[in-house]
Amino acid sequence: MQVANILKAKGTDILSVTPDTQVIEVAKILKAKRIGALLVLEGDTIAGIISERDIARALPDYGEKLLSMTVSELMTKTVTTCSSDASIDEIMEMMTNNRIRHLPVVDDGKLIGFISVGDVVKYRVDELVAEEDQLRSYVSGSNY
Questions:
Q1: Burial (Cβ within 10 Å: 0-12, 13-18, ≥19) of residue 103
Q2: In this structure, which CATH number among 3.20.20.10, 3.50.50.60, 3.10.580.10, 1.10.10.10 belongs to the domain 3-140?
Q3: CA–CA separation, 54 vs 96, rounded Å?
Q4: DSSP state, residue 142
Q5: CA–CA separation, 68 vs 57, rounded Å?
Q6: Are 104 and 40 in contact (CB under 8 A)?
Q7: Shortest CA distance to 70 belongs to which of 12, 19, 126, 117?
Q8: What is the 8-class DSSP label of residue 78?
Q9: CA atoms within 13 A on the CB side of 93
Q10: What is the pLDDT of residues 14-31, one digit of tens each?
Q11: Directed axis angle between helix 3-10 and helix 88-98, to 10°?
Q12: Rounded CA separation 41/57 (Å)
């Protein structure tokens, strides 16, 4: 299975902010949308990514000043991406090895989606449940 299957199930909506967005605004969006990261875009170009983890790790260094800082001061600038034809196994390995939880999906230089480890887990669980149902049907001789 491929990343395209995840995008087909979850959709291709991408929430993003710009580099000049204040960190407090990012925190509000993350809380309201119940998500863990936002892409930072300059036009159609990925400038970085900012996550709950980035904010939490910066808090001891910056204190309350953190909330008025801009995303560009805090974001991760080197962003790992994948393509829609990457396999689920490939991206799970990529996420594990790079210790990341979010991957922008880029095809032919164009951003087409944004997936999280939660999306990958949900997809795999749904896949395993469907497989289990098929096996039960096969074993019992019914057409479920």
A1: buried
A2: 3.10.580.10
A3: 18
A4: -
A5: 16
A6: no
A7: 19
A8: S
A9: 5
A10: 999 999 999 999 999 999
A11: 90
A12: 22
pTM more than 0.70: yes
Tokens describing residue 32 = 């309201």
What is the enclosing helix (H) or strand (E) of 45? strand 45-51
The domain ranges of the chain are 3-140
| Cβ neighbours for 110, distance < 8 A, ≥ 6 positions apart | 44
Cα–Cα distance measured from residue 3 to residue 107, given in angstroms and rounded to the nearest whole number: 11
For residue 141, is pLDDT > 80?
no
- State the distance between the two ends of the chain, measured CA to CA, in whole angstroms: 23
